[in-house]
Design goal:
By secondary structure, this protein is an alpha/beta fold. The protein has a single domain, classed as TIM Barrel, CATH 3.20.20.70. α6 crosses α8. The longest helix has 19 residues. It is globular and about 45 Å long. The protein starts with a strand and ends with a helix. The mean pLDDT is 93.
């Protein structure tokens, strides 16, 4: 089943508990939390204390995306704060296998992220180390960007690669997914769909998630 994963980067932080409750009512089972350090990407967001506060506010699974340098120093802190899944950038991690193993030993799923300009071929061997792969469909750092069209071809290549290696790992996509392109994104092979502005900047986040889930279900039926 395709997961619609609201990204709280686009939520109203003054009403965060209400925003989370709304997407939960809409049927979301996971939240996406973007962690930025102002170095790997040109923006600053949250640290483990914010993740811990969100953990206390919801039972939804927390998908924490680390857009930071030296992620191996911090993965255990984020799992300890309540992350159920932690993804690290291929471009930022010097010892990928060791860091993924550290995430798993701490008790979370371990994901690898590729920037738009990083080819899927970079994961030819490393894909077997991951529990899931996140493909960025915008350049990381800011919400509200448009999906880069060639990202969908990367999804198709990754889908082919996982089939060749007989892997069941989910393919996640993050950036610019909206009502207009969601079906195409699902048909390309994505299983976890991160969406921020299209949900939280809509009149009703609850209704938006419900509509996204319906569109994804229809596209999945075609894909199958």
């Amino acid at each position: 089943m395709v997961e619609i994963i609201p990204s709280i980067l686009s939520a109203d932080f003054a009403r965060l508990a209400e925003e989370i409750a709304a997407v939960e009512r809409g049927g979301a089972s996971m939240l996406h939390l973007d962690v930025m350090d102002g170095h790997f990407v040109p923006n600053l967001t949250m640290g483990p204390p914010v993740v811990e506060s969100i953990r206390r506010a919801t039972r939804l699974r927390l998908d924490v995306h680390l857009m930071i340098e030296n992620p191996e120093r911090y993965v255990e802190a984020f799992v300890g704060a309540g992350a159920d899944a932690v993804s690290i950038h291929y471009e930022a991690c010097r010892h990928l296998e060791t860091t993924l193993d550290k995430i798993r030993k701490a008790g979370a799923l371990a994901g690898v992220v590729l920037n738009p300009s990083t080819p899927v071929a970079a994961l030819e061997d490393a894909i077997v180390m991951a529990d899931y792969v996140l493909l960025m469909s915008v350049n990381p750092g800011f919400g509200g960007q448009k999906l880069i069209p060639y990202a969908l071809e990367k999804v198709r290549k990754l889908d082919t690669l996982r089939k060749e290696k007989h892997l069941a790992l989910p393919i996640e996509i993050d950036g610019g997914v909206n009502r207009e392109n969601l079906a195409e994104v699902v048909r390309a092979g994505c299983d976890w769909i991160v969406t921020g502005s299209a949900v939280f900047h809509s009149p009703s986040a609850e209704v938006a998630v419900r509509e996204f889930r319906e569109i994804a279900a229809g596209a999945t039926a075609v894909r199958c």
